[in-house]
Every structure is written in C-alpha cells, then in structure tokens.
Amino acid sequence: MLFFKRFKTLVATGAVVHAVLLAALPAAAADRLRIAVVPGAYADSIIAAAKDAKAQGIEVEPVEFTDWTTPNVAVNSGDVDINYFQHQPFLSNAIQKNGYALASAGTGILANVGLYSLKHKNVADVPKGGKIGIASDPVNQGRGLLLLQKAGLIKLKAGVGYLGSLSDIAENPKALQFVEVEGPQLVRITGDVDLAQGYPHFIVAAKAFDPSSGLAYSGIEDAQFAIQFVVKKDRVNDPVVQKFIRIYQNSQAVRDVTRKAYNSDERLYTLAWLKK
Fold first, then answer.
1. CA–CA gap between residue 181 and residue 115 (Å, rounded)
2. Which positions ≥6 away from 32 have C-beta within 8 Å?
C-alpha cells in the first residue's frame, strides 16, 4: 500500500518511468573486506577503523588468528582480503620460503620489542644456565637475538643482522638455554623463564604484567619493522583496499585505541606512516 501511494504521487508529477527504474534496482551494496589479525593492538585498531569505514561504505570483517603462519595462507588463497600482523622482513621471508604472491599495500603501527622478566630486576641478574624465551620464527628470532646482544648477554656472528638464528650465536658466556615459542605465545611463558622476548601489545591484551616494565627495548626507529597491510600482489592498488588504509591512517579512533593498547607509553610504539 505504501508503494502504491508513492507510485500515485510520482504519476502526478510525471515521474512514472523513473519510479519503475528505481524499484527495479537493488539497494547499493557496501564494499566488503575481510581482514586477518592477531589479538591485541592490531586487532583492536582494525576494529576501531572498521567503524569509521562503515560510515564511508566499506564493511570490514576482522578475522582473528592466534599464529603467524595462517594469515598469509589465508590471503594467498583468497579466504581473506588483507592481513595486518607482520612487518616487511617477516613478509619477505615468508614469500621466499613459501612462494606467496603477496605484497604490502600500506604501512601501519611500528611496535617495539622488549626483554621482560618476572624473576629479575636487571638483565645482569640473569643467572648462568638461565632460560630465555625467544620467538621461534626466523626474522623475529633474529630481532630478539639482536636485543639480547644489545643487552650484553650474547654475541652474534658478524653481519647476521635480523636474520640471525640460535646457530649464529658466537658467544654465550652464561651458557643460556633458549626456549623457542611462537611470538604471540611468548607472554604466556614469561613467568616460566628468566627472561623473555616480549611484545608490549600482547602483554596488554593478556593483562599479564606491566608492558612498560621491560629491562631493555629494541628501539622504534627502524621503519622496516612497521606492520604492513598485506594483500595479493594484484590488489596492492585496489581502490577499496587503499580507501580503507587511508581511513585507518587518518582515524582518531585508531590512534586512541592504539595508545591504550601500548599502555599510553610512547616508548613502545609509533605511527610509522607519519614518519615518512
């Protein structure tokens, strides 16, 4: 009946054809993106951006993973459109090892890495034979080893950089033992070891201990470790992807939730896209 009344009005104004055409068209569908994230700051910031994106015609569905392998598989297979959890060195290594047709479409948060202990107040207090929790994947393990070297606990072979592994330790004067764990799970074993490589946003998410209590930090000046928006190579310039990235980078809600996720401590993160 409502349609009939509306139709009569349009007839009276000579707009019959226009009305019929409008009635035949489906409602405009929003663009959609499925984005793979890991718990913590990255997921929280994507959820915040999703609210802003919806107002601009993009429906965003965050898809949470708890590991650092499946998100790349999911993008490569087309199950999700974007993943947001890894820095460029990690991505480059994954492409080399697995042949993924992936690339970065944009830059996000640059997170710090720290050394944490629930048993000792100083790095020097770590005993001989002490246990060290460290990331199991090649690139983040190398980043952790560089931090241990910076803290004076080990010495690596010359020139290995962030690609260093446990086999590249040249000097280990305290005969430290290493416990390899996937990055997101390191927070769970911190209380079981003498010292652990840690990611502040995972610590905040787990509400495990003070993320600002690190005994040493890697520094947030190295832009190559900024988290990337990763897509299939042929979607790097996809208009919807690029529109969402712009929304993310300009969202005050993203900045607010990110600051909260890093304990309101600017030593622990930076907004890498603002540093270019």
1. 14
2. 58, 59, 60, 61
pLDDT of residue 138: 86
Q: Which residues of the chain have pLDDT under 50?
A: 1-29
Residues 204, 262: Cα–Cα separation, whole Å: 7
The pLDDT of residue 220 is 77
Rg (CA), the chain: 24
DSSP 93-154: HHHHHH---EEEEEEEEEE--EEE-SS-SSGGGPPTT-EEEEE-SHHHHHHHHHHHHHTTS-
Closest CA to 44 of 135, 109, 115: 109
3-state helix, strand, coil in the chain (%, to 5): 45, 25, 30
**3-class secondary-structure state, position 226:** strand
Give the C-alpha separation, 246 to 240, whole Å.
Answer: 10
pTM for this model (two decimals): 0.80
pLDDT of residue 202: 87
Question: Which pLDDT score, from 0 to 100, does residue 79 have?
Answer: 97
